[in-house]
């Protein structure tokens, strides 16, 4: 089985990101490039990391009117990413148009409820109900829109997987036992997420901010 860990390269410096990616490449399955990276380094930065030879996950979390999201999706064809994110709360038409505009072979997955949010946050955004219900509702919408899968926390992935057998599930908010959670609120261990049906395990700071990132990546790999 290939390594399901995608390292989040949330670093402002391209040379530092490239150096980290080179160091850990034998112990992860791909690289996740998000807003911080893309805003700073654009397609050039994506190309530089892609040169290392592992799949690229562009975590842009697109969220706008359908026409704008489809145009943005066309603009990223040049990078041929393996995975791209949109926000499920952008609605069904937005997700349908995003999928239609995506490169062939790129998986489009929808963010349901950010792992940095808990139920109090949900209430404050005007949404009634718990995290489980919110994730299930948006996962169903994403499935109806023809997407490949969703982003959810490890606390919901088992339930989503049960309802969407052939879905593709991206799980961030992962922390090895005993490590700092930081701003993440709905957290599980990488092993728990994998056992519950995650397709991709997104891990950033537990590796990138470790004293020894290679050892941290190896330690996580050994638990899977
Ligand atoms: O719900 C979400 C969606 C995306 N992310 C992204 O994953 C990584 C997690 O980084 P850590 O350092 O392991 O916390 C980060 O790039 C987020 O933008 C998420 O955390 N939650």
Automatic annotation (TrEMBL):
Q: Which domain of life is it from?
A: Bacteria
Look at the named UniProt entry and state the broad enzyme category this protein falls under. lyase
GO biological process annotation, one example: 'de novo' UMP biosynthetic process
Q: Where is the active site?
A: 59 (for ompdecase activity), 61 (proton donor), 61 (for ompdecase activity), 64 (for ompdecase activity)
Check the record and name the SMART domains matching this protein.
Answer: OMPdecase
State the reactions this protein catalyses.
orotidine 5'-phosphate + H(+) = UMP + CO2
List the record's Gene Ontology CC terms alphabetically: cytosol
Q: Show the InterPro entries listed in the entry.
A: Aldolase_TIM, OMPdecase, OMPdecase_AS, OMPdecase_bac, OMPdeCOase_dom, RibuloseP-bd_barrel
* Pathway of action: Pyrimidine metabolism; UMP biosynthesis via de novo pathway; UMP from orotate: step 2/2
Q: Where is the Orotidine 5'-phosphate decarboxylase domain?
A: 4-220
Keyword Lyase recorded: yes
CDD domains of this UniProt entry? OMP_decarboxylase_like
Give me the residues that bind substrate, please.
10, 32, 59-68, 115, 175, 184, 204-205
EC no.? 4.1.1.23
- What keywords are assigned to this protein? Decarboxylase, Lyase, Pyrimidine biosynthesis
Q: Does the keyword Ion transport apply?
A: no
Role played: Catalyzes the decarboxylation of orotidine 5'-monophosphate (OMP) to uridine 5'-monophosphate (UMP).
Family indicated by similarity: Belongs to the OMP decarboxylase family. Type 1 subfamily.
> What name has this protein been given in UniProt?
Orotidine 5'-phosphate decarboxylase
